[in-house]
Design brief:
11 strands, 7-stranded mixed sheet, 4-stranded antiparallel sheet, about 120 residues, single chain, mainly beta, globular
């Protein structure tokens, strides 16, 4: 099982970024996938989940209406479209899943929102 995030970078407040989480070793539509983030010096914060099968989504209040999680089953990839970015969105973003009791994480991608 492998998860590889990409798409982070430096963006001005109000800007947009689209993160990708490319997966291998499992079928992404069969498991929930989460995005979590860790700001400098802080703990992990859950951002969003896309559930297996139905593909229903959930968001933290802090990102609701600005971020959109989606999934491309053919590419086995999960995305996080981030709009109207704020300085407080600055963090390392990780994708995560749990398969048969084991937790799998990507290496993270850095998002910096600054003017």
């Amino acid at each position: 099982v492998q998860l590889v995030e990409s798409g982070g970078g430096l963006v001005q407040p109000g800007g947009s970024l689209k993160l990708s989480c490319a997966t291998s070793g499992f079928t992404v539509k069969n498991y929930y996938m989460k995005w979590v983030r860790q700001a400098p010096g802080k703990g992990l914060d859950w951002v969003s989940t896309i559930n297996s099968s139905s593909g229903s989504t959930n968001y933290a209040d802090s990102v609701k209406g600005r971020f959109t999680i989606s999934r491309d089953n053919a590419k086995n990839t999960v995305y996080l479209q981030m709009n109207s970015l704020k300085p407080e969105d600055t963090a390392t973003y990780y994708c995560y899943t749990e398969i048969l009791g084991y937790n799998y994480w990507g290496q993270g991608t850095q998002v910096t929102v600054s003017s």
